[in-house]
Fold these 3 entries.
Entry 1:
Amino acid sequence: MPSTLRSAAVASTLDRLLAAEERQDVAAAFAAAGVDVTADYPVELSPAELAERAKDIIMAVSPEAGQLLHLFARSIGARTVVEFGASFGISALYLASAVRDNGGGRVITTEFQADKARRARENFAAAGLDDIIELREGDALETLRTLPDTVDLLHLDGWPTLRLPVLDLVRPRLRPGAIVVVDDIDLDVGLNIREEFLAHVDDPANGFLSMRIPVHQGVQLCLNLG
Ligand SMILES: C[S@@+](CC[C@H](N)C(=O)[O-])C[C@H]1O[C@@H](n2cnc3c(N)ncnc32)[C@H](O)[C@@H]1O
């Protein structure tokens, strides 16, 4: 059976975006935007201001994390996927390819920053996956308030400070056996953000089984026990 991920439209779109990401110097780009990434999470900036300053920085999942997302989504037969943090849409392309091959469905992703949302939509169209991906522009804490009854997979890849609030928002929709995949869990942005998230998903009272996968800057996989 042919895989959508390997189709010419998806593969060429991903190759182009991943090559652009590879050419980027993220630390230098943040510095040029006036964001000190060596400090704790830049608390002086609101999430929206940080998104505005980072509007030209791709910040995508690594190709390995993208492939992992795709495999997870294929393995659990995901038809309804929610993503926090679209940026240029790279991870959404991996997820939507899986959803298409699972028989179709929807990837709902969300992006704060208007230029990024426009570029992501262009990339979804170029890959021929715009019929699967719905991009909701605005703050995820607002745009993800309305969701389908059940969600199979949640990808948390927006600002780390908002991981737990977004998880809380989507949690009632996660079906038993749904998975939550967190990108860049190793990124230490200070303020105990990483520790609080891990304490939450590792506490048996919260109903997840969770482990870190050593891919790129760490991928946390959390299984919803129901
Ligand atoms: C790491 S990037 C996402 C990368 C993307 N998943 C990919 O692999 O291509 C994080 C994105 O989340 C967006 N973001 C941050 N906070 C947000 C919020 N509250 N609502 C919507 N988007 C947000 C940022 O603007 C940024 O583009």
Entry 2:
Amino acid sequence: MSNMKNLNGNDSSELLFERSKKVVPGGVHSPVRSFKGLDMSPRFISRAEGAYLWDESGKNYIDFCMSFGPLILGHQHPEVKRVIIDALDRGWSFGACEKYSLALAEFIVKKIPFIDQIRFVNSGTEAVMAAIRIAKGYTKREKILKFEGCYHGHLDSMLIKSGSGLAGEGESTSAGVGAESISNTLVCPLGDEEKLRFLFETQGQEIAAIILEPLPANYGLLKQNINFIKFLRTLCDQYQSLLIFDEVISGFRIAFGGMAEVTNIVPDIITYGKVIGGGMPVGAIAGKKHIMEMLAPVGPVYQAGTLSANPVAMSAGLKQLEILAEPGFYQNLEALSKKIENMWVRFFEQHRDKFSPSHVIREGSLFWFAPSLDQSGNSLPRPSNTSHFSTSIMSSFYPLFHFLLERGVYLAPNAYEVGFVSTAHANVLEELSLRLGIESE
Ligand SMILES: Cc1ncc(COP(=O)(O)O)c(C=O)c1O
């Protein structure tokens, strides 16, 4: 505690964190919340509304973390809040069939032409776990191919990064991941068509599916060339492997139909999370009927959940998606996100002396600051692959994060996390320019 920065005198986050560390591993329930590498204790948040968070000391922050993505309408959106309160009045878990998940399923199936069926679970991780099991059951194959730099939740077979060999074999990124999980996951760099061709030529008959974040947003924001994604579709068709789009971040955020809609490339299975639940714990697996009906009780692939399709979460998700489906929603969010992008560009220009030069990278309402110069002062391109920038970006993120936090702007506490714009940010643009110390436009 001695070397932790205290932002203001009566801040109690430090004390709460000390208490928390005694009863919770590392003091947190998800590692990134710990502010690791940032030399301070995490802020304990007492409440949130619109674009703002308040910590326990009463200090407020303009929030660009937005619960890591679900809150595309901001905190406590009044219409979403209303349906949550109404749902609570009817009871908050039935463990039985109800019409709230039916309404959400019908709404999504009606709006997204390439989805026939959807099943709800409680998190993105659960959705990916089921998608992989479906792919293995459907193809009767064992291997899954993933990409370096894509995150798919914390299931064993996805906690794998590239190993040293040429055959796509990986290494686990976590203790406790067994040899079998490692041996059945192949890892390839994003964009590397040659390696993919080789992996399919040598092991194609064993590959059940390729899983991809079609807009990789968990190692910064690594936008892919559409031809690369088309290549994956062709490769899967050629070898009768399935293509899984993990749209836990991009789904309903980049467009209502996510990256599948934007690219017009139809995957076999899509996983959703975050936005789909309106801020409640929801994930989903979706796809064509013949694939989705692999799931029990129709098919042989088992999947279940005590709290799946919880009526409160389903009601929140449906209300949020109804608002997103209103005409002009994504155009307005794009215009707002563009304004915020411009503000970040001006911020970096104005504070050139303080922070490392950065590309402000944006796709829709996601943004990320990528280094634009390497340590020797050579220009770096906008990255589309993890090898395009060094792994030491935490050190340049540190002063930026502290500067912004002190001025009341909250970024996700890690250099590799993207920022999330919500519609609520429209109400704080002037305040944001003041806090960033830039002239408003
Ligand atoms: C693309 C992607 N897939 C899966 C997950 C896992 O979702 P959850 O944290 O809800 O388990 C995440 C979480 O950030 C994600 O970004």
Entry 3:
Amino acid sequence: MGKNRSRRRPEEGILSSHPERARGQLYGRRKGPRLRGAQAELLTQLLPALNLEPARARCPHACFAVPVNDVWLEVGFGAGEHLYALARNHTDVGLIGAEPFVNGVAKLLSKLKDDPLSQERIRIHMGDARDILAALPAASLGRVMILFPDPWPKARHHKRRFLQTAMLDAIASALREGGQLRFASDNPDYVAWTLERVLAHEAFRWPARRAEDWRSRPADWPQSRYEAKALCGPPSYFVFERR
Ligand SMILES: C[S@@+](CC[C@H](N)C(=O)[O-])C[C@H]1O[C@@H](n2cnc3c(N)ncnc32)[C@H](O)[C@@H]1O
């Protein structure tokens, strides 16, 4: 028994308690290479203070250590470059990040560890963003951001793509009027597939007027890791508005 315990990774206790693990609905990696000492320590020492269980998302403005004027959600923040830059640039906004990949969460914690002010306004759900969206009250968010989600290129895997029509319903409900859904991808097929669904959805409008509006990353949109290594082609950036 002692032997088994010593082989246990620090993140395993947290992961095994996630309801979606039991449901088996999440696709993609949860764990990468075994975490090094300092990162493993952050998971046990810093994450509990920033951790957001879905039930607490029922009162999103109350999740943070300081009062915030708006709350934004990033789905699948990867290593957290974009989420962390937003926290630095928007000091009146509370940010919720959902990411099931433990190594990505550890990378965000490494950025946050010496930044107590940003820690006050970032909350992390190390799991499925759908559990957070299901808990959020109507019209409670100013932005939902989904950057370079896994494109699942094979037709039989399209059902795994995040922005299904049912998910657009959930996002539309969580966003307040005038709120934004931001989406980016470097995969033209995935872009076309997503545009078709968002433009068919009555809750969203796409105010873009010219190609430059979606070919260039808006100034207040920090670069993410996947954007930096975009492999399929030039990225496209979409800002949809909640009607
Ligand atoms: C291709 S990576 C992009 C990461 C980051 N957004 C970027 O641009 O660098 C997609 C990320 O979405 C995460 N992801 C997949 N399904 C998710 C879900 N249901 N909820 C939250 N994150 C999810 C994956 O773990 C992965 O880190």
